[in-house]
Amino acid sequence: xxxxxxxxxxxxxxxxxxxxxxxxxxxxxxxxxxxxxxxxxxxxxxxxxxxxxxxxxxxxxxxxxxxxxxxxxxxxxxxxxxxxxxxxxxxxxxxxxxxxxxxxxxxxxxxxxxxxxxxxxxxxxxxxxxxxxxxxxxxxxxxxxxxxxxxxxxxxxxxxxxxxxxxxxxxxxxxxxxxxxxxxxxxxxxxxxxxxxxxxxxxxxxxxxxxxxxxxxxxxxxxxxxxxxxxxxxxxxxxxxxxxxxxxxxxxxxxxxxxxxxxxxx
Length: 266
Ligand SMILES: NC(=O)c1ccc[n+]([C@@H]2O[C@H](COP(=O)([O-])OP(=O)(O)OC[C@H]3O[C@@H](n4cnc5c(N)ncnc54)[C@H](OP(=O)(O)O)[C@@H]3O)[C@@H](O)[C@H]2O)c1
Prior knowledge:
Layout: E1 12-17, H1 22-32, E2 40-45, H2 48-61, E3 68-73, H3 79-90, E4 99-104, H4 122-146, E5 154-160, H5 173-192, E6 196-202, H6 209-217, H7 221-232, H8 239-252, E7 259-262
Parallel strand pairs: 1-2, 1-4, 2-3, 4-5, 5-6, 6-7
Helix pairs in contact: 1-2, 1-8, 3-4, 4-5, 6-7
């Protein structure tokens, strides 16, 4: 990043999971303006229709810029889904890039209508962790193996984290556990490979479908109240607000690899 500091993200392969809506969708739109021509944007989610709509929007947003946009319809809760994304990524290894950007953004809140002591069913917990933890590790490993360290290639791995990675929220045992595990996973990755630029970014409370679930389904009435007030008083962040801070951090490229940075830290 040193050469192109603070202006763009180079000629990149940029992979965004959970790109069909919410933060991931807005990120795809914002980041497309920061990629140099001939860059490749890989958009992953289960909803093919929404990805196609986004592709059409991006095509007109960056018209003439020659961005290659690939949509991968995949369920990251399944091994086949992760393999499907890997297959698409491996097909791109011949593309000439100077930046690799992987945004592990896809996530789910899980069942927040119950407390920790109701989770007796291992399959339910495993299924949650498969999507929210295992898929992020396996996809990251696969992408990094497909694009190993080489001179002239700057590799960024971003984990979209949460305050819940560091603070327990009652009735959110799955989500808090998953986010804490992911943060540690990416800290280990940063420790193991100093060549990588690894960031866990907590985007703040966003006005997305996930927030709707948080304020309507959380078993904890205090949490429901907090999120309801944030929503009714217009204090939720727009995805664009949060993304501008994330992109500033990436462009400045001065964070300590493996760090957890919150929107409100900046
Ligand atoms: N919203 C907040 O207030 C908030 C706060 C802190 C952190 N975050 C984090 O920010 C990130 C984005 O959240 P958001 O609010 O944008 O969530 P969202 O609106 O619920 O969007 C989630 C995205 O993940 C995808 N997804 C869900 N299940 C999937 C699966 N099994 N396989 C593949 N993709 C899947 C969804 O697409 P499909 O349904 O099409 O698959 C969608 O594109 C998440 O990591 C979240 O934990 C959010």
